[in-house]
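Rotation project, supervised by the postdoc (A.L.). Task for the rotation student: set up a whole-complex structure prediction and record inputs and outputs verbatim in this book. Inputs entered:
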Amino acid sequence: MADRLSDFYTLPLDDWIEVVVKQWLVPNFRPAFQALEWPIDRVLDGLEATLLWLPFPVFVVVVPLIAWRVAGNRIAIFALSAVLFLDLLGIWRETMVTLSMIITAVAFCVIVGVPLGILAARSDRFAGLLRPVLDIMQTIPPFVYLVPIVMLFGVGIVPGVIATIIFALPPMIRLTNLGIRQVQAELVEAGLAFGATRRQLLFEIQIPLALRTIMAGLNQTLMLSLSMVVIAALIGAGGLGLTVFTGLGRLDIGRASLGGIGIVLLAILLDRVTQALGEGGQVTATGEKRTFKGLFKGLGKGRQGGSDSS
Amino acid sequence: MNAGIASHQKVSVEHLFKVFGADPEETIRRVQAGQAKDRIYADTHSVAAVADVSFGVDPGEIFVVMGLSGSGKSTLIRCLNRLIEPTQGRIRLGGEDVIAMDAEALRRLRAHKLSMVFQHFALFPHKTVVENVEFGLKVRGMAADERRDKALRALAQVGLEAYADVPPATLSGGMQQRVGLARGLAVDPEIMLMDEPFGALDPLIRRDMQDELLALQAQLHMTIIFITHDLHEALRIGDRIAIMKDGRFVQVGTPEEIVARPADDYVAAFTRDVDRGRVFRAGRLSREATVLSPGEDLEAARRRCAAPDVVALYRLDEAGRPLGLLACATLAAVGSGGLDDALDRDFPRVRADQELIELYGACARGQPIAVLDPEGRLQGVIDPLQVFALLAGGDAGSAAGDAPTSPAVARAPSPTRQA
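Outputs recorded:
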């Protein structure tokens, strides 16, 4: 009985993809892809080395201070508890490795995503081209692209970060685009009517007014990066993901839980702080205080205040 | 004539079109052929938001474009600085051909010669009041201290210097639009484009803002293009008014011309309920006064009164200010030394820019009304009977020097009149 197409013919799409990736993409483009690794590797190495080099008491002071300045008393207390607890669990080192991975991934998401979002906001054509790409990035399960990533980049922490970037990038682009498009048309007209260049329009009006939405995108990207931590460990990324992964391999429920707790604490802390950044949090005044510059100025003041009192 | 005008006019627009839709050429052709808007849309699915508009604005003039929503007035003003790209036509601002400009030249023009005030204020919510006002200067690349000084001066002009460092959202609507005005003033524009600037304000605040704009204009003598949907506002502040309908100018003229001689039924429908006492100004009725200079005596007064139509004369001081009114009828009873005693020092007086409505009280006294300039010098005299003649719908004022058809009307042909 032959009542379906596959009884006569099966489309060998899997073979075709294998041929394209193995015989065309990998041999021809491997060096190009590996060149991409270099900046990520530099940033990651530097960050990881710095975070591991910094003495623990620095974190005990600085992390709650940032949380207090940005998100208020409650989050500051939570931050202090989280830092102490993570160390108490003996997973501080893994946490720092994961944190440096996350920060690196998010940093590259911002570097790539914000400009792409700006371009998409300026050109409907570009936005139309980008949209299906983003849809695919968001719906395709990460396990699917782990294979070509390993083929192109090998195994290790940097390929893990690259997989994380692919997974976490779309909201950064989408929300940057959305934020800029949502800026009132009359405000853009006002900027143009006073002779602003495109660059001035972007930095004086569009980005500041889109900042809330862009920060929401950053928050989303950050959360997605954290959810990739364990998957990235599959291809050799270390840190908390590896703790979970080895726990899983040995059916060591204790280890796996430790890793999980670490990821959750990190996620809550980063989420609350970036959300508060987006909303302006405690920094209630308008003007520059709502911008990054204002935040760092504020931090500077806060830190000076702290050292005076100690 | 057009070429000659363009050289000294601040704004000159010739045969401007802006077509929204698929077939601009055909739409323009049909507009030129005089087809109606609905007919054109039915055939071409295109709308000529601005349809063959031509006008000129002199330096220091407030030119008001009045029209209902959908008349194309907001599109027109945005064509002037090319926020909306015109489809066809010529625009010259300050002698420069705006249509021919490349992006950079256009940007420089906007930054250095134009400014704009928006209906919904369009203040930047992330900047403080003074940063908003500084915006045009910052865009030009002016140093921070200098532009803050300049912005604070502009804020002082609208009475808001105390609010420099607050966010604009904390201010009331009227105050926010003052900030919008200050932002426009800070760049010392040659030409100010105002797109229904007071349209979003309460009636009382709107009136204050109109007064404020007129007071500022009296000092600054900018060239202003002012869009409104409110005829009363147009009449109050416009030196000349264009009535716009379906993308065309139906009539262009001074407020007094529009009210005295509406071009067609459409304009007449607007002007019907206009309070003529608020449109016409005292200056329109002002005639040359008969005066008695310092040092001139009773004899001179008697000689002047002998002339026909002279019923009274004003005794002036050294500066040209009237000391008092001397009615000719009383001259016979005056002794040679008592000229000053015979003066009526409490004579009625107005300024040339006062509305007729403010003259009613003075008219009630039956005496001639002295027209004074802001320094208190005598400019002319008004016969109270002429005030009522003008209110009753006559046009007595045209004798005061206004030609019945001003060049303004001749300059911008009204298509509907020829139809």
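Student's summary: Chain B is about 40% helix and 20% strand.
Supervisor addendum: Chain B touches chain A through 33 residues (CB under 8 Å).
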